[in-house]
Specification:
Blueprint: H1 10-17, H2 21-25, H3 33-48, H4 54-63, H5 70-80, E1 117-126, E2 129-138, E3 144-146
Antiparallel strand pairs: 1-2, 2-3
Helix pairs in contact: 4-5
Length: 147
């Protein structure tokens, strides 16, 4: 793309191609042997414990004699394309066979209490798992009737 032997200067070629000059001159540094050994150990631990996040991995590495923080472990995991496997809640996935109902309240004017109620369910993460909160609300008064 950039020809260093061309009659145009490198800076002019970058301007024509709408590239930053720094990206042309950038030479990536190879990773040190120490970091490569650390990444290999992270990979081995990830294969043994695929559910371990960066905190757990940094504790395991500390027990093995590596002094490394969880943020550095997280950075290396991102570079390696590794992420912890854990079950995520699937609260908003609709079944493909369910029909989509029309919105019946589109042009309705709400003028009195108890004319229209709304219900909503939400997911609340807790320290040990999660809970669902279900609430029924009156649209006119905006009062929560039940939860």
């Amino acid at each position: 793309m950039i020809d260093r032997d061309h009659k145009l200067l490198v800076s002019q070629q970058c301007r024509v191609l709408k590239l930053f000059r720094s990206s042309v001159y950038y030479q990536p540094r190879p990773l040190s042997e120490h970091i490569l050994r650390l990444m290999r150990r992270i990979d081995e631990l990830h294969l043994e414990y695929p559910f371990a996040g960066s905190r757990m991995l940094s504790e395991m590495l500390f027990r093995d004699g590596w002094e490394i923080g969880r943020r550095r472990v997280g950075t290396l995991k991102k570079k390696m394309g590794i992420s912890a496997l854990f079950r995520k809640p699937s609260t908003s996935k609709s079944h493909p066979g369910h029909t989509i109902c029309p919105y019946l309240l589109r042009d309705l004017e709400i003028t009195r209490p108890n004319q229209v109620w709304a219900a909503d369910i939400t997911y609340i993460p807790m320290k040990k798992g999660f809970v669902y909160l279900f609430a029924v609300m009156d649209w006119y008064s905006r009062r929560v009737l039940a939860w």
